[in-house]
Amino acid sequence: MILLHNNASFTLPVTDAILVFTILLLSFLVFPLLLRRFNVPDIIGLIIAGALLGPNGFNVLERGETIRMFGAVGVVYIMFLAGLEIDLRQFKRNRIKSVQLGMLTFSVPVLLGFGFGYFLLHYNFTTALLFGILFSPHTLVAYPIVRRLGIVKNEAVTVVMGSTLITDTLALLILALVSDSVQGGISGWSLLYFAGGLGVCLLLVLKLLLPLARWFFKNVESKGVNQYLFTLAFVFLSASVMVLFHIEPIVGAFLAGLALNALVPHTSPLMARISFAGNALFIPFFLFGVGMLADISLFWQDAGALALAAGMVGIATFGKLIPAWVMQKLHGYHAVQRNILFGLSYSKAAAALAISMVGYNLGIFDYAVQNGVIIVILVTCLIGPFIVEQAGLKIAMAENKGTDEKPEKPERILVSVANPSTIEQLIDFAILIKNPSSKEPLIPLAVVTDDHEVEAKVRQNQKMLEKALVHAAATDTPVLLSTRVDLNPASGIVRAAKEMLVTDVILGYNENRTAANAFFGTLLDIILQKLNQTIVVVKATHPLNAVKRIVLALPPGAEAEHGFRHCLAIVRRLSQHIGASVLCLANQPTADFLEEYKRMSRADFEFSVQLVTNWQTPTATFPPITSNDLFTICLGRTHSVSYNAALDEFSRHLAKHLKNTGFIFLYPGQN
Q: Spelled out in words, what is the top-level CATH class assigned to the domain 541-671?
């Protein structure tokens, strides 16, 4: 017996709120760390923690109202993240094969699970159907492996990514229908009510909430907390709308994730906050609560529970292996590609847990099924990544065979910061265009003019740079702060870029032109003259995630510039992260180069081309630029092969008059 601060004693289970929360936080921290040493995924560690400390283990904690509430929030959060992280571009590119695999990975496990439940376990039709649905969705646990190996563009990988959208969506829709039938029975009216409710929910989310989200991100202040709270409200409002029509809230959360997919870049601070809050708190509560439902003692008390778990592992295995084999025969994939299809689609986690919890809450699944689901997750999360690792290594070696490319020098991005109001925009842009494989830090640079107030200015700039550090830290991006004292800003930037071996320099656009600028040259003019690195000038009038289209102007001869490919890589990464389409304005030779670049490059780059023949008066030939566009132009330095004086003057004129549209000036690096 232990005395608390208020002289009250307690016995197990613990009920004091502070102690309960402390035990939970320690469990979220300690169990995954300990089991990670044995290559046990964190998701399994949290489930094991709940099983050991829950009422069926050592009875340290009870599954009270708080754990159930946070668990319900956690499962909604998981499905929101699943929709948010699906690559919609990959789905569009390989949609036919993705649909084929998606239908196979949905129907085969459902049929196997339904047959097992209906004929061997003697479930009724509805329970057997829900039991089959358990095995259809998959979680891309092994995706970080293919990303690390550099085989994301391999067709087998892209097909699995697209199939995830089909499989998970079908599983959640059938789940919603089954749940509705269990609560009220299936009738013509209930089916009509379900379909009508789903249609109304889709219209509300896509036609009302999504435009509202675009407006919010574009016009409301971009403070991190406000954006996160709005996103959270969007998700749970979507889930609540589903509840009003007796549809499972996880369907609304998944739909909200799909709707916000293009508005939340995967490398943005907002995405980092969403992932952090979910992974640190909400999702662990859900997984811990699932573990509390597990009763491992059933396995030695009841041989049938162990047999059920073994049968469920068999269904999960053959339910994904058969579709991979069929796709191999249909499309002539190699054995290693078949293994990629199987390994990536084999692992189960969030969706399977969510479906099993719905079945348990509806009273149609018992502890034995819950235990079986946990065993399935453990087995698939351990074996799936192993299979992907082995097959992925072979694919990576085959794709790299025969290439003898010289390694490029490390990418180092310098961000010139002078205006406190634009720091976050410039840092966000640098994070979005940064090569994901680069380990080099961003270099925010503040230059102080050497005069009698230099010490005060240095202290002031240090505070400004700390703001950049805090903002970049939200995305776990390494940062190297730098302050320079020099005769003028241009000289400080040039010296820093040379000394730090910088590859890219990012500048904010300065629209103030003075008489001195006109005579001696602007800061940009001086930097372009003295540096050969890629120079990027940015003016973002709205948050970048509100951009729908990037209009990329490529003047004649741009493809002959030394750093042109690198400029294309910058645009490609930016478009991928913000979900914007790319319209290239180019003449025929440049358009031919773009097609060849797309064919030869292993990078994922989707764009359309509009041919432009008159580059002397571009105003008459360029398409209209709207506030939803980001106008980007690749400009040559004076005396470079693609330099066009008329275009240079047009760009300055355009920058002056584009009040509500963001723009980027790209100056390719020189030899």
A: alpha beta
